[in-house]
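Long-time lurker, finally posting.

We've been working with DC1 domain-containing protein (Gossypium raimondii) and I want a structural starting point before designing mutants. I don't trust myself to interpret raw outputs, so I'm hoping someone here can both generate the structure tokens and explain anything notable. Sequence follows.
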Amino acid sequence: MYIAHVRCATDKAIWDGKIMLEGYDERSKEVVDEPWNLITDVVEQIRIGELMVASEIKHSYHDHNLRLTFSGKTKNDDSECDGCTRPISTPFYSCEQCKFFLHKDCAELPKEMPHPFHKHLLTLSNSHGECGYSWYDACGRVHQGFRYRCYEGDCSFEIDIQCMLLSETLKHPSHEHSLFLVHNTKGTSCSACFRNLQSRDVAYRCMKRCDFILDVGCASLPLSAWYKYDRQALTLSFFDDSEPSQLYCDLYEKEREPNRWFYYCADCDNSLHLNCAIGDLPYMKLGNKFKTYRHKHPFTIACGEVCNGQALECKESDCNITVHWDCCWDLGRIF
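Top reply, 14 upvotes:
Generated this for you. Predicted structure of DC1 domain-containing protein:
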């Protein structure tokens, strides 16, 4: 059940005045009766209790059949979902011919969805243009997985799957009260990263006069992360009351600010900046390529020892370079 005030439901930021009929296709402008997701064929099914589950499928965004795995690991423990780009976990579909993985939930995503972040219907897509990646409007992150995009007129609003799963209300462990989605955020700043928000930004805000607000990027950070040199999971932490002299990132070996969020392992007493724990490009899949106007060759995303996290490699014989994500924007002045 969904309930909203009339004024909230008809806000121009989230509603364009149209009333959609059930089964209405925005692009064809008519009511259609067709599969609601991008699974084009169920090749094989198995019975689990009273349920029939698709154990082998054909999916619109992959050329080969995908088989379902309920338990165990992939051949490469670092495998990532090609839909949400998060680490793969069961149940998932995989291709036996290439390194393509989809969480079962990602494979079953609907073709089209409305969302309170945007006033138009959004369509699921896996294309990213010439560069091979997208910047997303809600969270401002770089992403290579599936996305939902607006095709209404010249509107090009895009949102990744993780943000698409967020709702209008959020209960976050960083704050005692429930947070509510707001569209008018100009003049405020995020309580986690202190970024100044603009009028176009959406964010989650406490309505109990706490002045607590989270931008979408911080609101959707994973609550735990794994760092390759630590056997224990790191937990997202929101405040550190240690002595100022103890506020260091154990990887970057630089001071941390006490009010900025960080990842922490209590067993190992390790503290890391957010980007040091999850990487500069946590939503771009290792091994994928992308282009930038700053360099003449495409880069490959790799796990770099030199760069402490994701590195960008140009493997062309006349280059053979490895750089950070931030450093690649200076390549025009270097090469």
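Before you design anything, note these points.
The chain has four domains: 39-108, 110-215, 221-278, 288-327.
The mean pLDDT is 82.
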